[in-house]
Amino acid sequence: MQHDGGTPPERLRALIRHRAQVDADRVYLEDARSDRVLTYGALGAAVDAWSSTFDVIGIADSGAVLVDVGDPLAFAVVHLAALASGRRAVPVDTGQPTTEPARLADLLGGASIVVSDRDQDATVPGAPAARVDPATGLPSDVRDGDLPADAPDAPGEGSVVLFTSGSTGTPKGVELPESQLLFVARAVVDHNRLTGEDRGFNSLPLFHVNAEVVGLLATLVAGATLVLDRRFRRTGFWELLAERRVTWLNAVPAILAVLAKTGPLDFPDGLRFVRSASAPLPDPVRAALGDVPLVVSWGMTEGASQITATPLDAPARPGTVGVPVGSQVQVRDEDGAVLPAGQVGALWIRGPGIVHGYLFGRAAERFDADGWLSTGDVGSVSADGWVSLAGRSDDVINRGGEKVYPSEVEDVLLGDPRVLEAVVVGRPDDVLGSVPIAYVIPHPDPDEPLDHDGLVADLTARAERSLTRFRRPVEIVVVPDLPRAPTGKIQRARVRGMAATS
Asked: Are 422 and 477 in contact (CB under 8 A)?
């Protein structure tokens, strides 16, 4: 049974009101570590309260609201309120110093307001600051008796503004309008067959597009419930999912690698599927997860989180990231010509969920006249539409004219049960141009100290058996960890820097 009371409205503000009316007492969000919940009725009231607050303060309809909120339920309220009231929601990583809002405002060219729940307000010169009550998600000076009966509709679309990491230069701003976000959220709902009976679990950071669209918005569209955790905790994980009656898990390969290598994989009854996003899922990790239905996806900020995904009922296809969902995928050679099925080249995407440009006209060369965007990824598309990733174009190693795709080497190394994660990058070489070097993070085992030399020797032998000579790493380095992004994804640009100086 779907608790939707009919077809959900197209606009976010109307959708939130719809849910508040037909599902007022139904729980929208749960805090994983307490008994705090946010019902759809409370969401509707809080969004109205924040919309009125923005109006009273004098925030323009398209003004930038920097959401500097660490509490997951309170973040969701302020974020959705900014978006639904026609403003520009700018999520802030609260793991960064209190100067982070000012940095983002500088990139954006100014901010209209900063909403924070930090003990020390994060301020932006010239922008007002407001505080959110983490217990209710309401503005801190608003109480239930002061809530507006109904705030007016926004005259225009809201949007979310996110910035790329800037690892290769100035960060690029991506503005995702409300219509694009909801298009992708609905595609996620349809593809994963989410209904009002579903209970998702998300421990991914809410300032990242995946959690915002696949987590918050898709759950809202479906009229379902989402359990939010501030971070992934390995201890007691399966017990928590069973206690919360979770039916689907929103995860990334880094989380699944830990779960697969630290077992047992005690999947709770009622778990319909596990979703993997943000980075390619190594085949050994996929195999270790056993029979659990797995939705492997590929996406990017520019595509509002999802471009392709594995169909729920389809047999597993190792090395693939599913089929296009609401978008088109094309493979091109270095001259821009479209390649036949199965051939590896640059991946381009187009569709209603894909942006048409970056803020301030940056990186315009990545878009062509027909609306296609160069993803920066390398891969192929099979004759029946399944997409495979070979890596980022920057990650491909050119060894004396031979191309080495890191994923094919990493999968070999991950075949050793002592390896938790593996990353292969290119190291400059005076003769060959670049050679592959591998970094491996061993599986933690406090009961048996690791023999590093023995592991390196075994991995070298494994590479010799499984890889042609030019694909074999010239060096294998065992490390305790590697630089990571907030989602847990390893930052390859920084690893390449390590290799270049080793």
From this structure: no
Give the three-class secondary structure for 114: strand
Closest by CA position to 485, among listed 70, 96, 88, 69: 96
319, 333 in Cβ contact below 8 A? no
b/e map of 104-137 (b: 16 or more CB within 10 Å)?
bbebbeebbbbbbbeeeebbbeebebbebbbebb
Whether the link from the prior residue into 155 is cis, omega within 30° of 0, is no
- The answer to whether 407 and 280 have CB atoms below 8 angstroms apart is yes
d(CA 130, CA 28): 24
Instruction: Give the Cβ contact number of residue 361 at 10 Å.
Output: 7
Q: What are the two backbone dihedrals, phi and then psi, of residue 118, each rounded to the nearest 5 degrees? A: -75, 150
The pLDDT tens digits for 238-266 are 999 999 999 999 999 888 888 887 666 77
If you compute the radius of gyration of the chain from its CA atoms, what whole number of angstroms results?
A: 23
Cα 65 from Cα 129, distance rounded (Å) = 10
pTM across the whole model: 0.87
Confidence tier at 149 by pLDDT (50, 70, 90): low
pLDDT digits (tens, 9 = 90+) for 5-43: 556 778 999 999 999 999 999 999 999 999 999 999 999
